[in-house]
Amino acid sequence: MRFGASVWPWRWDTPYDKAIARIGDAGFRATELIAWNRRVLDEYYTASTVASLRGVLAEKDMLLSQFVVDNRGAASGDAAVRAAAFDMFKKGVDVAAELGSPIVNTVTHLPFEIHFPFITDRPHMQTFSHDIAPDLDWKGNWEQYVVTIRECADYAEAAGLKYSLEPHPFRYGANIDGLLRLLEAVDSAALGVNLDPSHLFPVGDLPHVAIYRLAPHVLHCHFSDNDGETNVHWRPGMGKIDWKHVLRALKDTGFQGVVSLEFEDVPGVARGVEDVPGVYKGNADATQEFENEYKTALAYLTGLADEVGLTVE
Fold first, then answer.
1. With 0-12 CB in 10 A as exposed, 13-18 as middle and 19+ as buried, what is 216?
2. d(CA 58, CA 44)
């Protein structure tokens, strides 16, 4: 197993070459790259940029553990929107393969592309809800979503990649049982889970229990701590998650992949040129204070891994 760091909290928007080098210099052995939209896929991840990014990774002796694709709309009730989401995914798989990533990742998707309120706003709202049309065909939407995810998994498998689905509040596959139901329905050897405790914990799941129950399907992990009420992404040890339990569960289940640290709600974090949800805003590149948070977390988690007998490369 090795520890990595997601690129976007260090540098939200492209280009990513300097952020990758900085992550490597901070002591991490892997990173993840992302495509926020189709324009980024087409205009940034060109053949020359891909070659340059692979060169930086090789120079720093780092793995590209996942390529993340924001293909929102895959559970839309509109067939044209679903088709565009699938097309975005296919292009993402192609880029991931060119970059040398073994995994392509998406979050699970919003039913009917309903824009629920942000869970980080919940503690501050007197009424937290969303008006839902009474005539939606929920069964039909679920069945169509399964078809779409199966098509995505088949395309990833044909390219020699795995497809990791990441749980997220209010979406299909938001908790352990939802993920298991989706994995069973899709029934693809290429499909697995990107385990994110900060998304599972606030919907009522204990992260180490999630690892035990999802063990055969856990392809990759995102690590951050939170308050159990929202999906804020803090440094492990600053919230309510028991990280020794989590690392012991990884050891017990034989996890050999990458644990990528993803701190989106700590001081100094990078945020994009567009308005994106989050507690802290204002940095094109993460600050030194932010980098120190990552170094502290790396030492803390490496120490816990040693305690439970989990080998870290």
1. exposed
2. 20
Inter-CA distances, 90 with 55, 104, 181, 281, 289, Å: 24, 10, 24, 32, 37
Whole-number Å distance between alpha carbons of 35 and 243: 30
DSSP H or E run through 5: strand 2-6
Domains contained in the chain, CATH given: 2-126+135-308 (3.20.20.150)
**Nearest residue to 7 (alpha-carbon basis) of 75, 79, 91, 63:** 63
Q: Is the pTM of this model over 0.85?
A: yes
193 CB burial (10 A radius; 0-12, 13-18, 19+) = buried
Which token pair is 251? 């050891």
Residue 132, C-beta contacts closer than 8 angstroms, at least 6 positions apart: 114
Q: For 60-90, write each residue's pLDDT tens digit.
A: 999 999 999 999 999 999 999 999 999 999 9
In the chain, the amino acid numbered 13 is D
Q: Which two tokens stand for residue 193?
A: 């889970």
Structure tokens at 296: 């502290």
Interval 252-278: pLDDT, tens: 999 999 999 999 999 999 998 777 777
For residue 159, list its beta bridge partners. none
- Residue type at 22? R
Rounded to whole angstroms, the Cα distance separating 140 from 127 reads 29
163 has which bridge partners?
104, 191
Question: Residue 203, SS3?
Answer: helix
